Each structure stands twice: as C-alpha cells, then as structure tokens.
Amino acid sequence: MSALIGCGGVQPQRVLSFSPFLCTHESIFLTSKQTVYGPERPQNQGRIDRSPPCSELCVVCRGRPPTQSFPSTAPYANMRNVIILGGSYSGARAAELFSQTLPITHRVILIDRQSHFNHLYLFPRFGVVPNHANKVFIPYTGVMASPGRSSSAPSSKSSSSTTEETESSRSGDSSDEGGPTRAQCVFISASVTEVGPGFVEIDRDLDEETLGASVSDDDDIISSGREKWRRRRLNWDYLIYALGSTLPAPLLSPARTKVEGVRFLQAQQERIALSKSVLIVGGGALGIQYATDIADLYNNPANAALRPENSVEGKKKITLVHSRSRFLPLYKQEVHDEVTRRLDELGVDVIMGARLALPELEDDVSKQPLTSRRVESKTGVLEYDLLLRCTGQKPNSQLLKKSFPDAINSQGYVEVRPTLQLDSCNTKYADRMYVIGDVANTHAIRAGHIGWNQAGIVVQNIMSAVLCGHREPSLITYEPSPPQIKVTLGLRNSVSELLPSMGASETQVKMHSDGAVDAGWIHTWTRMGVDAQDPTI
C-alpha cells in the first residue's frame, strides 16, 4: 500500500480534462485542471485505462473519466456510503466519476428531487420554441455506470411511486469470476429534509435493501432517532453537498417527473405564444437569452415555420429592463457590444440602469393571466401582458444551518476550504463533507461548467482518503479558472468569451451565427451515456 498515490505526502498526478457544460444553449468544452490516480499504483490495487483523447474537442471523448477496476474484497453488508445531494451539473458529474472509481467496499448514492437530469441551459430555448421539451430531461442511467439500483419515487413517465432495479452491462462492472468489481450505485428521487452529522433524511420511506448498507462509525446517530425516521435516514461516510441555488422564476419548475417537466415547458411556450407584449426583468444571460429567442422566433419572418399554431398574429413587443449600465460586466466590452447590437437588430426595447416597482404576480409564467398591465419606468409607462422575472437566485444552504451554522456566510453561501471541504469548526464531520457548485463560496463564477470541474477535485480527494485508509491522505486544492461564457443571441447567433487553448491565459471573444435551433441536445445525451434515439424516455 506504500505506493498508493495520494497517501503519505505523495502528490496525485494532474492531467487535463474538459467540461461539456458552459453557460450556453450548446454543449462546449473548456480546459480545467483535473486529477486521476497515477501509474505508480501496484497492479493488484487496480489499473487505469487512460486512452489518448481525440485531437479535436470531441463531445464523446473529451471529459470522459479514466476507468478503474478494483478487486472484490468486501461483502455488500459492509459497504460505506458516499452520498451526493443534488443531481445537477456538479452532482451528476461526481456520481459518474465515483461509479467508475469507488471500490466495492463503498457505494455511491445520488439523491435528487427530480427523476431526470434537468439540462437547465436549454430551458430558455425550449421554453420558447415548441416540440423540443423532452430533450432537456435526461435519464440518470448513463451517469450511474455500474451495477446498482434506482430507487425512484416518481417513475420517468408517471407520478406514481415505484422502486426499480437496473443492471448495467458496461465493461468493467464485473470481474472474470463473475463478481462485481465496482461500487454499487443507487439513485434516489426524493427531497432532502435534513442534513445532520453523519446522516441525511429524505421525504419518503426507503426499502430495507437501500437502508441495509448504512454502516459506519456513527451508527448510534441513526439508531437513536425516533422510529418514524428509521426508514427515511441514510448515514454517510462522505457527503457531497451540491444543491445549488433557487432558480429564477422562468426556470423554477415544481416538476418531479419528466412528464411534469415537459408540461411545465409546454405551458410556458403557450403563454409566450399567446402574449402580445413581454416584459423581461434582468439583463443577465438568462434575460438576454429569453429576449433574443422570443424576438427571433416571433418577429423574424424567416422563423415563421417554427412558431406554434396558436400564436397571436403580428409582432410581439419585447422590453428588457436591466439594473446595470452594462451587460455581463465580468466579461470584455466586446461581449456587451455584441449583446447590444443583437438586441437592437432584433427590435428588443432595452432600458438600462433601471429598477421597477413590480406588482406581486404569480412567478410561474404558465399561471399568469394574459391581461394588460402597466408599470412606471424612468423612460415612461411600460405596458405588458406577460412578465418574465430573470433575477433572484439564492443559495440552497438552509439544510446546513442547523448542524453547521458557522459554515454559512451572511449572503447564505457555504464557506469551503481550498480543498472544497466544508469550512466548519465541527471538523469530525466537516473533514468528510464537501460542497460544490453554485452554493459554495469558492470565489469562482456560478455556472454549470464550474461545478462540473469542482466535482473532479472532490472525487480525487475522497478517493485519496478511501484508498489511504487510516493514513493521512494528500488532498489537492481547487483553483478557479478565468470567467468564461457563451450566450445565445437568438436561435442561431451567439457570443462567447473563452480560453482558445489549454495553455492559454487570455480569453478571446468570438461571434457565431451558425448555431442549431435544437441547441445540439444530442451531444449532451451522448456525453451522459444515454441513447438519444428516443428522447421521451
């Protein structure tokens, strides 16, 4: 065991990896420092299959984690839990990596309120353009890539409660002797109601098999709970908190199943189609995307064939109100200039440096009455019949306040160490808790690709601790990358500011006019290991 990378002061090897999730309607990649377990590991401790990636930025090959197999050394009864809370970009990536690297002594449990991965960057596009809503809800089956179980309260196509078992046939899941060689993977569709020292509690009962592998040094915490808790609590040896932030109103779906999510987007499409004047408040990427997509679809004659049949005749009046004097101020002036140019080209009325005293309205777009309303602005009275509030994200940190109040800052974000461990004085548990994604105060921008890259750091650190046993692991630290973005400016246009290559230090701004109306959704399904032939699954 002395040669294990990451133990006893030996530093893990670094390689370059790619994130397929950027703030965009299209899946693209950027470079980030990432880690794998180095080649010095003895053969009987597992091997790494690391094929060279494509020379191009291939959506299938780039970002694929190394595969690693471990000997079967422990019965399922003694497995320890690595629990991931939140299955969005950061949580899903962590689950994918763990499913291919954790030894059989452990299992990875992914818990998310929704039955499917929600590709949120496509919500604005498919909340406007009809006939694509199925494509943003992706099954987790490709992410959880080893033998395991899906314990899902809502099934993929209904709201009924089910528990289903799924077996993976991917190579590396079984040894030559027929036994499993990788960690068991479990997906649970449920809401988390409590996060405590050594345990999590969810909003529904679990079966005995799912509960049965809850074995750790903190069993007394679980057993001391009231009986009604027993079937709703899981203990953890390592916890990854990836619950992100509450979403702006147009993205804030109450859906827990794919069917409900599709209905949410379809209802939004219909409301937009029937409106005559749309007021969009918030000039960040989300507000810009809604404004330009609606204008391009309904006010551009070239896109008439894409409109729903029930849309009102005539052009829509679209107004975008932004509280600042510049769009996307973290980025270069060229980005602001291109956003402004496209908004003007598409006929969107823009009011900068203004805040509106808006009436209390139903935030759910589909439930707003299509009646004419008026609001005062610094340029005069604005009339509208549909309001899109594209502001108001708040970190989902409330579940940590009870047991780890010192880790929550005044803005509600969770403080983390450079290793992405929870920064709390309760080190007995904080050393085994990691926080990633939008909810973590890492001083990086809050975007899907950032959380995706943070997941790799956390997986490396937990794997170092798992493989080192009682020895002190060598943990690596997270280094934020420069702010990068790609924003759509209509159905085919976009502007991006990205690093041009892996070794570059200066970002470049580029304009594009050849984007796909369907936003390249197939690339994301393929990247997540799911067959895209039937997007209704």
UniProtKB/TrEMBL annotation:
Pfam families: Pyr_redox_2. SUPFAM superfamilies: FAD/NAD(P)-binding domain. It comes from the Eukaryota. The lineage of its organism: Eukaryota, Fungi, Dikarya, Basidiomycota, Pucciniomycotina. Residues 145-163 have a biased composition (Low complexity). This is FAD/NAD(P)-binding domain-containing protein. Residues 81-443 form the FAD/NAD(P)-binding domain. GO terms for molecular function: electron-transferring-flavoprotein dehydrogenase activity; flavin adenine dinucleotide binding. Residues 145-180 are annotated as: Disordered. One of its GO terms (cellular component) is cytoplasm.
